[in-house]
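Re: the multi-chain job from yesterday

Posting the exact lines I submitted so nobody has to dig through the queue logs.
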Amino acid sequence: MTVAIDRADRAAWAALAEELTLPTAAWIGGPVASRAGVTRTTVDPATGLALAEVAECAAEDVDAAVALARAAYESGSWSRTHPRERAGVLNRLAELITEHCHELALLDSLDGGKRIADTVGIDVPGSAAILHWYAEGLDKVYGEVAPTGPADLATVTREPLGVVAAVVPWNYPLEMAIWKVAPALAAGNSVVLKPAEETPLSALLLGRLAAEAGLPDGVLTVVPGAGPVVGQALGRHPDVDAVTFTGSTPVGRLFQTYAGESNGKQVWLECGGKSAVVVLDDVADLDAVAAGVCAGILTNSGQVCSATSRLVVQAGVAEELTARVVDRASRIVVGDPLDPVTEMGPVVSSRQAARVRAYMELGADQATAAYGGGLVEGARTDCFLRPQVLTGVDPAAAIATEEVFGPVLTVHTVDSVEDAIAVANATPFALAAGLWTDGLRRAHTVAARLRAGTVSVNCVDALDVATPFGGFGHSGYGRDLSLHALDKFTGLKTTWIHHG
Ligand code: NAP
Ligand code: MG
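And the result, C-alpha coordinates for all chains:
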Protein backbone atom coordinates (compact mmCIF):
# COMPACT_ATOMS: atom_id res chain seq x y z
CA MET A 1 0.00 0.00 0.00
CA THR A 2 1.08 3.58 -0.54
CA VAL A 3 2.48 4.93 2.69
CA ALA A 4 0.24 7.85 3.60
CA ILE A 5 2.22 11.02 4.10
CA ASP A 6 1.79 14.73 3.68
CA ARG A 7 3.48 15.30 0.34
CA ALA A 8 4.01 18.98 1.08
CA ASP A 9 6.01 18.24 4.23
CA ARG A 10 9.78 17.93 3.93
CA ALA A 11 10.06 16.28 7.34
CA ALA A 12 7.60 13.59 6.30
CA TRP A 13 9.69 12.72 3.26
CA ALA A 14 12.88 12.69 5.31
CA ALA A 15 11.28 10.40 7.89
CA LEU A 16 10.07 8.03 5.20
CA ALA A 17 13.55 8.04 3.64
CA GLU A 18 14.99 6.94 6.99
CA GLU A 19 12.59 3.99 7.13
CA LEU A 20 13.19 2.76 3.60
CA THR A 21 14.99 -0.48 2.94
CA LEU A 22 16.91 0.27 -0.21
CA PRO A 23 17.07 -2.43 -2.88
CA THR A 24 20.69 -3.43 -3.56
CA ALA A 25 20.54 -6.75 -5.41
CA ALA A 26 20.58 -7.30 -9.13
CA TRP A 27 17.42 -8.98 -10.40
CA ILE A 28 18.16 -12.11 -12.39
CA GLY A 29 15.27 -14.47 -11.77
CA GLY A 30 15.20 -13.04 -8.24
CA PRO A 31 17.47 -10.86 -6.09
CA VAL A 32 21.11 -11.83 -6.59
CA ALA A 33 24.57 -10.51 -5.77
CA SER A 34 26.97 -10.08 -8.65
CA ARG A 35 28.83 -13.31 -9.50
CA ALA A 36 32.10 -11.76 -8.34
CA GLY A 37 30.51 -10.41 -5.16
CA VAL A 38 31.51 -6.86 -6.07
CA THR A 39 29.41 -3.86 -5.02
CA ARG A 40 29.37 -0.14 -5.78
CA THR A 41 28.39 2.64 -3.40
CA THR A 42 25.55 4.75 -4.67
CA VAL A 43 25.59 8.28 -3.32
CA ASP A 44 23.01 10.97 -2.59
CA PRO A 45 24.25 14.11 -4.38
CA ALA A 46 22.24 16.34 -2.05
CA THR A 47 24.12 15.14 1.05
CA GLY A 48 27.24 13.51 -0.37
CA LEU A 49 26.42 10.52 1.84
CA ALA A 50 26.51 6.88 0.78
CA LEU A 51 23.04 5.45 0.33
CA ALA A 52 23.66 1.78 -0.36
CA GLU A 53 26.08 -0.81 -1.64
CA VAL A 54 24.61 -2.04 -4.89
CA ALA A 55 25.54 -5.23 -6.75
CA GLU A 56 28.07 -4.34 -9.42
CA CYS A 57 27.51 -6.68 -12.35
CA ALA A 58 30.06 -7.70 -14.96
CA ALA A 59 30.07 -9.67 -18.22
CA GLU A 60 29.36 -12.99 -16.49
CA ASP A 61 26.25 -11.56 -14.86
CA VAL A 62 25.12 -10.24 -18.23
CA ASP A 63 25.62 -13.73 -19.67
CA ALA A 64 23.42 -15.18 -16.93
CA ALA A 65 20.72 -12.54 -17.46
CA VAL A 66 20.70 -12.98 -21.23
CA ALA A 67 20.60 -16.78 -20.92
CA LEU A 68 17.60 -16.54 -18.58
CA ALA A 69 15.93 -13.98 -20.83
CA ARG A 70 16.44 -16.23 -23.85
CA ALA A 71 15.13 -19.31 -22.04
CA ALA A 72 12.06 -17.37 -20.92
CA TYR A 73 11.50 -16.14 -24.45
CA GLU A 74 11.81 -19.60 -26.00
CA SER A 75 9.55 -21.15 -23.36
CA GLY A 76 6.69 -18.97 -24.58
CA SER A 77 5.76 -18.19 -20.96
CA TRP A 78 5.44 -14.55 -22.03
CA SER A 79 6.19 -14.35 -25.73
CA ARG A 80 3.37 -16.67 -26.78
CA THR A 81 0.73 -15.77 -24.19
CA HIS A 82 -2.63 -14.30 -25.07
CA PRO A 83 -2.35 -10.52 -25.46
CA ARG A 84 -4.93 -9.97 -22.76
CA GLU A 85 -2.84 -12.02 -20.34
CA ARG A 86 0.14 -9.77 -21.03
CA ALA A 87 -2.12 -6.76 -20.61
CA GLY A 88 -3.21 -8.08 -17.22
CA VAL A 89 0.35 -8.38 -15.96
CA LEU A 90 1.38 -4.95 -17.26
CA ASN A 91 -1.69 -3.38 -15.67
CA ARG A 92 -0.84 -5.08 -12.37
CA LEU A 93 2.72 -3.77 -12.60
CA ALA A 94 1.34 -0.28 -13.17
CA GLU A 95 -0.86 -0.67 -10.10
CA LEU A 96 2.07 -1.84 -8.01
CA ILE A 97 4.09 1.17 -9.17
CA THR A 98 1.22 3.38 -8.05
CA GLU A 99 1.06 1.58 -4.70
CA HIS A 100 4.82 2.07 -4.26
CA CYS A 101 4.69 5.64 -5.53
CA HIS A 102 6.25 7.27 -2.49
CA GLU A 103 8.98 4.67 -2.22
CA LEU A 104 9.90 4.84 -5.91
CA ALA A 105 9.80 8.65 -5.88
CA LEU A 106 12.15 8.71 -2.91
CA LEU A 107 14.55 6.25 -4.50
CA ASP A 108 15.00 8.46 -7.56
CA SER A 109 15.12 11.64 -5.45
CA LEU A 110 17.74 10.26 -3.07
CA ASP A 111 19.82 8.54 -5.73
CA GLY A 112 19.78 11.26 -8.38
CA GLY A 113 18.98 14.45 -6.45
CA LYS A 114 15.72 14.87 -8.32
CA ARG A 115 13.05 17.10 -6.77
CA ILE A 116 10.52 15.05 -4.85
CA ALA A 117 7.80 17.24 -6.34
CA ASP A 118 8.85 15.95 -9.77
CA THR A 119 9.40 12.30 -8.92
CA VAL A 120 6.13 11.95 -7.01
CA GLY A 121 4.18 14.22 -9.34
CA ILE A 122 5.57 13.29 -12.74
CA ASP A 123 8.04 10.41 -12.95
CA VAL A 124 6.20 7.74 -10.97
CA PRO A 125 2.61 8.46 -12.07
CA GLY A 126 3.91 8.94 -15.62
CA SER A 127 5.56 5.52 -15.49
CA ALA A 128 2.37 3.85 -14.27
CA ALA A 129 0.34 5.64 -16.95
CA ILE A 130 2.71 4.47 -19.70
CA LEU A 131 2.43 0.86 -18.57
CA HIS A 132 -1.38 1.10 -18.50
CA TRP A 133 -1.35 2.67 -21.96
CA TYR A 134 0.67 -0.14 -23.53
CA ALA A 135 -1.34 -2.74 -21.63
CA GLU A 136 -4.51 -1.26 -23.07
CA GLY A 137 -3.01 -0.83 -26.52
CA LEU A 138 -1.35 -4.17 -27.12
CA ASP A 139 -4.51 -6.08 -28.05
CA LYS A 140 -5.67 -3.36 -30.40
CA VAL A 141 -2.81 -3.61 -32.84
CA TYR A 142 -3.88 -5.67 -35.84
CA GLY A 143 -1.90 -7.44 -38.50
CA GLU A 144 -2.54 -7.20 -42.24
CA VAL A 145 -3.78 -9.37 -45.05
CA ALA A 146 -1.82 -8.67 -48.23
CA PRO A 147 -3.62 -8.18 -51.56
CA THR A 148 -2.57 -11.49 -53.10
CA GLY A 149 -4.56 -13.32 -55.80
CA PRO A 150 -7.51 -15.58 -54.94
CA ALA A 151 -5.36 -18.70 -54.67
CA ASP A 152 -3.25 -17.35 -51.83
CA LEU A 153 -3.56 -15.86 -48.38
CA ALA A 154 -0.64 -13.80 -47.07
CA THR A 155 -0.77 -12.45 -43.53
CA VAL A 156 1.64 -9.86 -42.21
CA THR A 157 2.06 -10.07 -38.45
CA ARG A 158 4.28 -8.39 -35.90
CA GLU A 159 6.62 -10.78 -34.14
CA PRO A 160 8.61 -9.99 -31.00
CA LEU A 161 12.37 -9.83 -31.59
CA GLY A 162 13.49 -12.01 -28.69
CA VAL A 163 15.91 -10.54 -26.14
CA VAL A 164 16.00 -6.75 -25.95
CA ALA A 165 18.65 -4.90 -23.93
CA ALA A 166 17.57 -1.52 -22.52
CA VAL A 167 20.41 0.81 -21.50
CA VAL A 168 19.22 3.98 -19.82
CA PRO A 169 20.60 7.22 -18.30
CA TRP A 170 20.30 8.78 -14.84
CA ASN A 171 18.18 11.85 -15.47
CA TYR A 172 14.78 10.09 -15.30
CA PRO A 173 15.82 6.70 -13.91
CA LEU A 174 12.43 5.03 -13.53
CA GLU A 175 10.71 6.75 -16.39
CA MET A 176 13.45 6.12 -18.98
CA ALA A 177 13.40 2.45 -17.99
CA ILE A 178 9.62 2.31 -18.40
CA TRP A 179 9.77 4.05 -21.81
CA LYS A 180 11.77 1.02 -22.99
CA VAL A 181 10.44 -1.81 -20.87
CA ALA A 182 6.70 -1.17 -21.35
CA PRO A 183 6.49 -1.41 -25.16
CA ALA A 184 9.19 -4.09 -25.37
CA LEU A 185 7.30 -6.32 -22.92
CA ALA A 186 3.95 -5.46 -24.47
CA ALA A 187 5.28 -6.83 -27.77
CA GLY A 188 6.26 -10.11 -26.10
CA ASN A 189 10.02 -9.69 -25.76
CA SER A 190 12.28 -10.50 -22.83
CA VAL A 191 14.14 -7.43 -21.57
CA VAL A 192 17.51 -7.04 -19.85
CA LEU A 193 17.61 -3.60 -18.22
CA LYS A 194 20.82 -1.77 -17.39
CA PRO A 195 20.25 1.30 -15.24
CA ALA A 196 22.85 4.07 -15.02
CA GLU A 197 25.49 3.50 -12.38
CA GLU A 198 24.52 6.80 -10.68
CA THR A 199 20.88 5.79 -10.21
CA PRO A 200 20.26 2.03 -10.05
CA LEU A 201 17.79 1.89 -7.13
CA SER A 202 14.38 2.36 -8.75
CA ALA A 203 15.22 -0.14 -11.50
CA LEU A 204 16.12 -2.75 -8.88
CA LEU A 205 12.75 -2.29 -7.21
CA LEU A 206 11.08 -2.44 -10.63
CA GLY A 207 12.52 -5.93 -11.11
CA ARG A 208 10.88 -7.09 -7.88
CA LEU A 209 7.56 -5.41 -8.63
CA ALA A 210 7.44 -6.99 -12.10
CA ALA A 211 7.83 -10.43 -10.52
CA GLU A 212 5.09 -9.60 -8.00
CA ALA A 213 2.86 -8.54 -10.88
CA GLY A 214 3.20 -12.03 -12.35
CA LEU A 215 5.82 -11.51 -15.03
CA PRO A 216 7.44 -14.93 -15.52
CA ASP A 217 11.02 -15.37 -14.31
CA GLY A 218 13.66 -14.09 -16.69
CA VAL A 219 11.33 -11.93 -18.78
CA LEU A 220 12.68 -8.81 -17.06
CA THR A 221 16.16 -8.88 -15.57
CA VAL A 222 18.03 -5.91 -14.12
CA VAL A 223 21.82 -5.75 -14.24
CA PRO A 224 23.30 -2.70 -12.50
CA GLY A 225 26.91 -1.89 -13.28
CA ALA A 226 29.29 0.29 -15.25
CA GLY A 227 28.54 1.32 -18.80
CA PRO A 228 31.86 0.22 -20.30
CA VAL A 229 31.44 -3.19 -18.60
CA VAL A 230 27.74 -4.12 -18.45
CA GLY A 231 26.59 -1.81 -21.24
CA GLN A 232 29.34 -3.01 -23.53
CA ALA A 233 28.69 -6.68 -22.68
CA LEU A 234 25.05 -6.23 -23.69
CA GLY A 235 26.00 -4.29 -26.81
CA ARG A 236 28.37 -7.04 -27.92
CA HIS A 237 26.30 -10.00 -26.75
CA PRO A 238 25.72 -12.53 -29.54
CA ASP A 239 22.32 -13.51 -28.13
CA VAL A 240 20.84 -10.03 -27.72
CA ASP A 241 18.54 -9.16 -30.63
CA ALA A 242 18.16 -5.43 -30.13
CA VAL A 243 19.50 -2.62 -27.97
CA THR A 244 17.32 0.33 -27.07
CA PHE A 245 19.48 3.11 -25.69
CA THR A 246 18.97 6.53 -24.18
CA GLY A 247 22.05 8.54 -23.35
CA SER A 248 24.79 10.63 -24.86
CA THR A 249 25.59 10.73 -28.55
CA PRO A 250 29.17 9.34 -28.20
CA VAL A 251 27.98 6.31 -26.21
CA GLY A 252 25.13 5.80 -28.68
CA ARG A 253 27.73 5.56 -31.43
CA LEU A 254 29.61 2.94 -29.40
CA PHE A 255 26.53 0.74 -29.46
CA GLN A 256 26.52 0.92 -33.24
CA THR A 257 30.13 -0.24 -33.19
CA TYR A 258 29.38 -3.02 -30.69
CA ALA A 259 26.55 -4.23 -32.92
CA GLY A 260 28.66 -4.08 -36.07
CA GLU A 261 31.46 -5.99 -34.42
CA SER A 262 29.20 -8.67 -32.94
CA ASN A 263 25.92 -9.99 -34.31
CA GLY A 264 24.57 -6.95 -36.17
CA LYS A 265 21.80 -6.54 -33.63
CA GLN A 266 19.31 -3.70 -34.09
CA VAL A 267 20.32 -0.53 -32.24
CA TRP A 268 17.84 2.23 -31.44
CA LEU A 269 19.27 5.50 -30.19
CA GLU A 270 17.77 8.38 -28.21
CA CYS A 271 20.78 10.63 -27.79
CA GLY A 272 21.59 14.16 -26.80
CA GLY A 273 20.28 17.51 -27.90
CA LYS A 274 21.01 21.22 -28.13
CA SER A 275 17.48 22.38 -28.63
CA ALA A 276 16.41 25.93 -29.39
CA VAL A 277 13.42 27.88 -28.21
CA VAL A 278 12.49 30.49 -30.81
CA VAL A 279 10.64 33.59 -29.64
CA LEU A 280 9.14 35.81 -32.36
CA ASP A 281 8.53 39.50 -31.86
CA ASP A 282 4.72 39.26 -32.00
CA VAL A 283 4.39 37.72 -28.53
CA ALA A 284 2.37 39.86 -26.14
CA ASP A 285 2.73 38.07 -22.81
CA LEU A 286 6.48 38.21 -22.20
CA ASP A 287 6.08 37.01 -18.62
CA ALA A 288 4.49 33.78 -19.77
CA VAL A 289 7.22 33.35 -22.36
CA ALA A 290 9.96 34.02 -19.78
CA ALA A 291 8.40 31.42 -17.49
CA GLY A 292 8.35 28.95 -20.38
CA VAL A 293 11.94 29.68 -21.37
CA CYS A 294 13.09 29.16 -17.78
CA ALA A 295 11.14 25.93 -17.40
CA GLY A 296 12.61 24.73 -20.70
CA ILE A 297 16.19 24.94 -19.37
CA LEU A 298 15.87 24.68 -15.58
CA THR A 299 13.54 21.69 -15.20
CA ASN A 300 15.46 18.83 -13.59
CA SER A 301 18.45 21.20 -13.23
CA GLY A 302 18.82 21.29 -17.00
CA GLN A 303 19.43 17.54 -17.13
CA VAL A 304 16.84 16.92 -19.80
CA CYS A 305 17.77 15.67 -23.26
CA SER A 306 15.16 17.93 -24.84
CA ALA A 307 16.04 20.97 -22.68
CA THR A 308 15.80 24.16 -24.71
CA SER A 309 19.32 25.39 -23.97
CA ARG A 310 19.43 28.09 -26.67
CA LEU A 311 17.06 31.05 -26.70
CA VAL A 312 16.75 32.45 -30.23
CA VAL A 313 14.85 35.69 -29.93
CA GLN A 314 13.87 38.41 -32.38
CA ALA A 315 15.45 41.78 -31.67
CA GLY A 316 12.14 43.56 -31.01
CA VAL A 317 11.56 41.65 -27.77
CA ALA A 318 15.09 40.45 -27.01
CA GLU A 319 16.12 42.96 -24.39
CA GLU A 320 12.88 42.84 -22.44
CA LEU A 321 12.58 39.05 -22.56
CA THR A 322 16.20 38.49 -21.59
CA ALA A 323 15.79 40.77 -18.58
CA ARG A 324 12.76 38.80 -17.42
CA VAL A 325 14.48 35.44 -17.98
CA VAL A 326 17.55 36.60 -16.02
CA ASP A 327 15.33 37.89 -13.23
CA ARG A 328 13.41 34.63 -12.94
CA ALA A 329 16.51 32.45 -13.17
CA SER A 330 18.27 34.45 -10.47
CA ARG A 331 15.32 34.06 -8.08
CA ILE A 332 14.84 30.33 -8.50
CA VAL A 333 15.07 28.42 -5.22
CA VAL A 334 17.92 25.93 -5.49
CA GLY A 335 18.01 23.49 -2.63
CA ASP A 336 17.11 20.23 -0.93
CA PRO A 337 15.31 17.92 -3.37
CA LEU A 338 13.20 16.49 -0.52
CA ASP A 339 11.81 19.93 0.26
CA PRO A 340 8.64 20.41 -1.79
CA VAL A 341 9.27 24.18 -2.05
CA THR A 342 12.57 23.63 -3.84
CA GLU A 343 12.43 24.73 -7.46
CA MET A 344 15.74 23.26 -8.58
CA GLY A 345 17.70 20.45 -6.95
CA PRO A 346 21.36 19.50 -7.29
CA VAL A 347 22.85 17.95 -10.40
CA VAL A 348 23.34 14.20 -10.26
CA SER A 349 26.97 13.99 -9.08
CA SER A 350 30.11 15.92 -8.28
CA ARG A 351 31.55 14.72 -11.58
CA GLN A 352 28.61 16.11 -13.52
CA ALA A 353 28.73 19.33 -11.49
CA ALA A 354 32.41 19.80 -12.36
CA ARG A 355 31.62 19.26 -16.03
CA VAL A 356 28.79 21.82 -15.97
CA ARG A 357 30.93 24.34 -14.06
CA ALA A 358 33.68 24.01 -16.67
CA TYR A 359 31.07 24.83 -19.31
CA MET A 360 29.89 27.78 -17.21
CA GLU A 361 33.42 29.17 -17.16
CA LEU A 362 33.83 28.61 -20.89
CA GLY A 363 30.44 30.23 -21.45
CA ALA A 364 31.39 33.31 -19.45
CA ASP A 365 34.43 33.67 -21.74
CA GLN A 366 32.38 33.22 -24.90
CA ALA A 367 29.55 35.63 -23.98
CA THR A 368 29.35 39.41 -23.81
CA ALA A 369 27.52 39.10 -20.49
CA ALA A 370 27.07 36.23 -18.03
CA TYR A 371 24.41 36.18 -15.33
CA GLY A 372 24.59 33.68 -12.49
CA GLY A 373 26.38 30.39 -12.73
CA GLY A 374 28.78 28.66 -10.34
CA LEU A 375 28.21 27.00 -7.00
CA VAL A 376 25.41 27.90 -4.63
CA GLU A 377 27.19 29.42 -1.64
CA GLY A 378 26.88 27.51 1.59
CA ALA A 379 25.27 24.48 -0.04
CA ARG A 380 25.83 21.10 1.56
CA THR A 381 27.64 19.61 -1.46
CA ASP A 382 29.28 20.84 -4.66
CA CYS A 383 26.32 19.56 -6.70
CA PHE A 384 24.13 22.65 -6.20
CA LEU A 385 24.59 25.09 -9.08
CA ARG A 386 23.10 28.47 -9.84
CA PRO A 387 21.46 28.81 -13.26
CA GLN A 388 23.48 30.73 -15.80
CA VAL A 389 22.22 32.94 -18.64
CA LEU A 390 24.73 33.97 -21.30
CA THR A 391 24.01 36.75 -23.78
CA GLY A 392 25.77 37.86 -26.93
CA VAL A 393 26.98 34.35 -27.75
CA ASP A 394 28.09 33.44 -31.28
CA PRO A 395 25.76 30.59 -32.35
CA ALA A 396 28.86 28.70 -33.54
CA ALA A 397 30.68 28.96 -30.17
CA ALA A 398 31.30 25.73 -28.25
CA ILE A 399 28.94 26.78 -25.44
CA ALA A 400 26.15 27.16 -28.02
CA THR A 401 26.82 23.94 -29.90
CA GLU A 402 27.84 21.34 -27.29
CA GLU A 403 25.35 19.69 -24.94
CA VAL A 404 25.99 20.94 -21.38
CA PHE A 405 23.22 18.96 -19.68
CA GLY A 406 22.94 21.54 -16.93
CA PRO A 407 21.19 24.87 -16.16
CA VAL A 408 22.97 26.98 -18.80
CA LEU A 409 21.06 29.06 -21.35
CA THR A 410 22.66 30.92 -24.26
CA VAL A 411 20.77 33.84 -25.80
CA HIS A 412 21.00 34.62 -29.51
CA THR A 413 19.35 37.76 -30.84
CA VAL A 414 18.27 37.68 -34.48
CA ASP A 415 16.58 40.17 -36.79
CA SER A 416 14.34 38.18 -39.09
CA VAL A 417 12.23 35.04 -38.84
CA GLU A 418 14.52 33.51 -41.48
CA ASP A 419 17.53 34.17 -39.24
CA ALA A 420 15.70 32.64 -36.28
CA ILE A 421 15.06 29.43 -38.23
CA ALA A 422 18.66 29.33 -39.48
CA VAL A 423 20.15 29.74 -35.99
CA ALA A 424 17.72 27.26 -34.43
CA ASN A 425 18.62 24.65 -37.04
CA ALA A 426 22.38 25.32 -36.97
CA THR A 427 23.23 22.23 -34.93
CA PRO A 428 23.70 18.59 -35.87
CA PHE A 429 21.32 17.63 -33.05
CA ALA A 430 17.60 17.67 -33.80
CA LEU A 431 15.67 16.39 -30.81
CA ALA A 432 13.27 19.17 -29.81
CA ALA A 433 12.44 22.81 -30.41
CA GLY A 434 10.22 25.42 -28.81
CA LEU A 435 8.39 28.23 -30.55
CA TRP A 436 6.54 31.19 -29.05
CA THR A 437 4.40 33.33 -31.32
CA ASP A 438 0.92 34.83 -31.25
CA GLY A 439 0.59 34.50 -35.02
CA LEU A 440 -1.31 31.44 -36.21
CA ARG A 441 0.25 31.53 -39.67
CA ARG A 442 3.76 31.97 -38.30
CA ALA A 443 3.21 29.16 -35.80
CA HIS A 444 2.56 26.74 -38.63
CA THR A 445 5.15 27.94 -41.12
CA VAL A 446 8.00 28.26 -38.64
CA ALA A 447 7.18 24.99 -36.80
CA ALA A 448 7.25 23.19 -40.14
CA ARG A 449 10.78 24.41 -40.77
CA LEU A 450 12.29 23.67 -37.36
CA ARG A 451 14.30 20.47 -37.61
CA ALA A 452 13.35 18.49 -34.53
CA GLY A 453 11.53 15.34 -33.47
CA THR A 454 9.11 17.44 -31.39
CA VAL A 455 8.23 21.12 -31.79
CA SER A 456 6.39 22.63 -28.81
CA VAL A 457 4.44 25.73 -29.84
CA ASN A 458 3.43 28.10 -27.03
CA CYS A 459 4.15 25.37 -24.48
CA VAL A 460 7.21 23.73 -22.95
CA ASP A 461 8.65 20.36 -23.92
CA ALA A 462 5.31 18.85 -24.95
CA LEU A 463 5.30 15.13 -24.29
CA ASP A 464 2.72 12.39 -23.96
CA VAL A 465 2.63 8.63 -24.18
CA ALA A 466 0.30 9.07 -27.15
CA THR A 467 2.92 10.93 -29.23
CA PRO A 468 6.28 9.64 -30.47
CA PHE A 469 9.48 10.99 -28.94
CA GLY A 470 12.93 10.98 -30.53
CA GLY A 471 15.18 12.89 -32.85
CA PHE A 472 16.96 13.28 -36.13
CA GLY A 473 20.66 13.69 -36.87
CA HIS A 474 23.01 13.38 -33.89
CA SER A 475 20.01 13.01 -31.58
CA GLY A 476 19.46 9.49 -32.86
CA TYR A 477 16.62 7.63 -34.52
CA GLY A 478 13.73 5.38 -33.65
CA ARG A 479 10.94 6.61 -31.43
CA ASP A 480 9.95 6.02 -27.84
CA LEU A 481 6.31 6.28 -26.68
CA SER A 482 3.15 5.93 -28.80
CA LEU A 483 2.31 2.83 -30.84
CA HIS A 484 5.28 3.67 -33.06
CA ALA A 485 7.59 2.44 -30.29
CA LEU A 486 6.30 -1.06 -31.02
CA ASP A 487 8.00 -0.83 -34.43
CA LYS A 488 11.38 -1.06 -32.67
CA PHE A 489 10.48 -4.13 -30.69
CA THR A 490 8.80 -6.19 -33.39
CA GLY A 491 9.65 -7.51 -36.82
CA LEU A 492 7.15 -8.01 -39.63
CA LYS A 493 6.50 -11.60 -40.61
CA THR A 494 4.79 -12.73 -43.78
CA THR A 495 2.98 -16.07 -43.79
CA TRP A 496 1.97 -17.06 -47.29
CA ILE A 497 -0.52 -19.88 -47.72
CA HIS A 498 -1.16 -21.17 -51.20
CA HIS A 499 -4.57 -22.81 -51.28
CA GLY A 500 -5.54 -22.64 -54.94
P1 NAP B 1 25.69 8.21 -21.04
O1 NAP B 1 26.94 8.46 -20.31
O2 NAP B 1 25.71 8.09 -22.50
O3 NAP B 1 25.07 6.90 -20.38
C1 NAP B 1 23.88 6.31 -20.81
C2 NAP B 1 23.94 4.84 -20.50
O4 NAP B 1 25.00 4.24 -21.26
C3 NAP B 1 24.25 4.56 -19.03
O5 NAP B 1 23.55 3.41 -18.61
C4 NAP B 1 25.73 4.32 -19.08
O6 NAP B 1 26.21 3.53 -18.03
C5 NAP B 1 25.90 3.60 -20.39
N1 NAP B 1 27.28 3.68 -20.88
C6 NAP B 1 28.22 4.63 -20.60
N2 NAP B 1 29.38 4.34 -21.22
C7 NAP B 1 29.18 3.20 -21.91
C8 NAP B 1 30.00 2.39 -22.74
N3 NAP B 1 31.28 2.71 -22.98
N4 NAP B 1 29.46 1.29 -23.29
C9 NAP B 1 28.18 0.94 -23.04
N5 NAP B 1 27.37 1.65 -22.26
C10 NAP B 1 27.84 2.77 -21.70
O7 NAP B 1 24.60 9.29 -20.71
P2 NAP B 1 24.24 9.89 -19.30
O8 NAP B 1 25.35 10.80 -18.91
O9 NAP B 1 23.82 8.80 -18.37
O10 NAP B 1 22.93 10.72 -19.64
C11 NAP B 1 22.98 11.97 -20.22
C12 NAP B 1 22.82 11.88 -21.73
O11 NAP B 1 21.62 11.20 -22.05
C13 NAP B 1 22.71 13.23 -22.37
O12 NAP B 1 23.49 13.28 -23.52
C14 NAP B 1 21.24 13.32 -22.73
O13 NAP B 1 20.95 14.18 -23.77
C15 NAP B 1 20.91 11.92 -23.04
N6 NAP B 1 19.48 11.68 -22.92
C16 NAP B 1 18.76 11.52 -24.08
C17 NAP B 1 17.39 11.31 -24.01
C18 NAP B 1 16.59 11.12 -25.27
O14 NAP B 1 15.50 10.60 -25.18
N7 NAP B 1 17.06 11.51 -26.42
C19 NAP B 1 16.76 11.26 -22.77
C20 NAP B 1 17.52 11.43 -21.62
C21 NAP B 1 18.89 11.63 -21.72
P3 NAP B 1 26.79 4.18 -16.68
O15 NAP B 1 26.17 5.49 -16.48
O16 NAP B 1 26.38 3.20 -15.68
O17 NAP B 1 28.26 4.23 -16.85
MG1 MG C 1 23.27 8.14 -6.79
